[in-house]
Amino acid sequence: MKVYLTHHANALSAEQDPERHLSEAGVCEAERLGLFMKGIGAIPSQIIHSDKRWTRETGERVAASLGQPVPVSVSSYGIASEDPVEPFIDHVESGGGDIMMTGHGDFLLRASAKLLTGDERRWVIEFSPGNGTTFCLANNKGVWKVVWGWRQEQLSSFK
């Protein structure tokens, strides 16, 4: 089982766009990530996101770039920065296939720490500079490990 944790792509500020659509740069970030993942055969069985427009649009753009139908839906549990990570961990452990989450930095840090160390306060990866950064975690015989991590500057050749 694999989990792809993605910090959402760059969005317009609330002053620029009250609905906070992805910026032009954010659209490129999400599409590049999808093309990269397609190129290495990293195709999740589902993409979940928070209730924020920019996380949904990130997931939709990634899914469209994968070239295969991948369902994209809002998470049935909270994944905002302050929400508990246990419902996500339960979802992952339910065995429904590889999952991609396009979410928010603090939640992703805590969820990855919980999977990798058992303690959500022991952060071992960093989503900085953030937007569009993705980590792939894999479970091998009950042990979670980081398989790869990519930041947008590393994806510049995927267009």
Key terms:
Rossmann fold, alpha/beta, about 160 residues
Topology:
Layout: E1 2-7, H1 24-39, E2 46-49, H2 53-66, E3 72-74, H3 86-93, E4 99-103, H4 105-117, E5 134-140, E6 143-150
Parallel strand pairs: 1-4, 2-3, 2-4
Antiparallel strand pairs: 1-5, 5-6
Helix pairs in contact: 1-2
Commentary on this structure:
The protein has 159 residues and is of the alpha/beta class. A six-stranded mixed sheet has the order 3-2-4-1-5-6. α1 runs parallel beside α2. The radius of gyration is 14 Å and the shape is globular. 38% of the residues are buried. The mean pLDDT is 92.
Overall geometric form: globular
User: The biggest beta sheet, please?
Assistant: 6 strands, mixed
Structural class: alpha/beta
The CATH C-level name is Alpha Beta
Tally of helical runs: 4
CATH superfamily: Phosphoglycerate mutase-like
Spatial sequence of strands, sheet with the most strands = 3-2-4-1-5-6
Short description:
The protein is of the alpha/beta class. Helix content is 32%, strand content 21%. Strand 2, helix 2 (53-66) and strand 3 form a beta-alpha-beta unit.
